[in-house]
């Protein structure tokens, strides 16, 4: 019906409105009611266009990763008070959507005759302060030169990646180097739990020795249970979804993109919902927790 009213509006300078309404079998009162609301509709459309621009900027800044919840949080951080359902409608109308994570094939290869460490996490992926619990895992990135392997250690209190290492192999030194980076940043507490699966890299003497020298405690989930290390695996699902699962021309390009994602975007810019403080970046979460600790001390 709006198209009929729009036609009458366009032709009313040529023909009388009464004639057009009679020919098109619509009531003049209905046409005039539509006409009175046209100004409001145009203002609403203009406001939606402005909102769509703000959404697009945030969406591009997130590498196309943010869906409705994080777009809503991002707009609130910028001082915009916008209804979440309106954001959902505008994004749907303009085909803007976040990424969906995919399940990945595991890399874990349990070591034969290795004595696993006890499970000190027991699927409790929370921590009262930074540097108390870390979870680690390894993934692989496809390049035309071959696989690039990435090992990370994630802090459960902040969800910050505190240590990571990349190489063309996944020997024990890969996870040792990543743990060394985490310790070198000075963010680990004495007796910090470092949790992983039972892959051969994590049951190696090299890693056990490093953990002992750093004064940490080793923890491992059960064989074949992805849920025992879900937080670490979740990060890799997020990384591959938000980087975009693709094949890089060489390892150097993949390294550069992963470094930028972890250091520039994930740790410092990507919003994550905190149960108490709302949407914060991992860096902001660590700063909040450190401030709390300083006030208590």
What is the strand and helix layout of this fold?
Blueprint: H1 2-11, H2 17-24, H3 28-61, H4 68-77, H5 84-93, E1 133-143, E2 146-155, E3 161-167, H6 172-184, E4 193-196, H7 205-214, E5 217-220, H8 230-243, H9 251-266, E6 272-274, E7 278-280, H10 282-296
Parallel strand pairs: 1-4, 4-5
Antiparallel strand pairs: 1-2, 2-3, 6-7
At a glance:
The chain has 297 residues and is an alpha/beta fold. The chain has helices at 2-11, 17-24, 28-61, 68-77, 84-93, 172-184, 205-214, 230-243, 251-266, 282-296, and strands at residues 133-143, 146-155, 161-167, 193-196, 217-220, 272-274, 278-280.
Which keywords apply here?
14% strand, two-stranded antiparallel ribbon, elongated
Overall description:
It is elongated, with a radius of gyration of 27 Å. The strands form two sheets. A five-stranded mixed sheet has the order 3-2-1-4-5, sandwiched between helices. The chain is built from ten helices and seven strands. Helix 1 (2-11) runs antiparallel to helix 2 (17-24). The model has no long low-confidence stretch (mean pLDDT 86). With 297 residues, the protein is an alpha/beta fold.
Quote the average pLDDT: 86
Alpha-carbon distance between the termini? Answer: 69 Å
Q: Based on Cα principal axes, name the global outline.
A: elongated
- Helix/strand/pairing class, anyone? alpha/beta
Total DSSP E strands: 7
Question: Strand sequence of the main sheet, in spatial order?
Answer: 3-2-1-4-5
Order of helices and strands: HHHHHEEEHEHEHHEEH
Continuous helix count: 10
Strand content: 5-15%
Low-pLDDT stretches: none
Summarize the biggest pleated sheet. 5 strands, mixed
Helix content: 40-55%
Radius of gyration over alpha carbons? 27 Å
